[in-house]
Amino acid sequence: MAPLAKSSKHLMELTDAQRPLVLVHGLLDTPRLFSRLERRLESHPRPVLSPHLPHRFGATPLRVLAEQLDELIQDHWGAETPLDLLGFSMGGVIARIWLQELGGAKRTHRFLSVGSPQRGTLTAQCIPSWLFAGLADMKRGSPLLNLLNRDSAKLQQVDCISFFCRWDLMVFPGWQAVLPIGRVQEVPVFTHQQLMSQPRSLDLLTESLLID
Description:
Distance between the termini: 24 Å
Strand content: 5-15%
Shape: globular
CATH topology: Rossmann fold
CATH class: Alpha Beta
């Protein structure tokens, strides 16, 4: 897909329907994760980027993956084009690093955090950082998450929505898989992966991406 033009006039005229959408997958996932959601959005065509971020089973630090995401976004749409962002699971934390530490908040209209351990997950607590740095970044109380949660003011300029599954065993406890800013929506599903596969969840995500 060709990059959007980068002129100031074009940016001012960009409509919601034209605003690019970036989808960031999580641990052990690939961009195929988003195929159902993308089919839902086909009747509302917009540029979509769903990159593969090689996490090496959680060994790659999340900041490194956020830097890779930044390079891919800039390659596609430059440094200014407004966009929407959705991150699933670990991808939501990667997306948040991009927003808060790499300047992404200045150009992002809406951010959907879906089943993401924004306050950490107990399932990562015993993982050694020297072996799986990316997984250790998601521990409750990790230096990365503590910093992001202490300095979340940049998210105030973004329309943030957190979606969580109460019974989530991957991001545990599920009801704390939310950002410190923005709206919160519990999704009536029973597993982590159902957040991106069940029709009711896809309905909620699609509606949130299409509202003005």
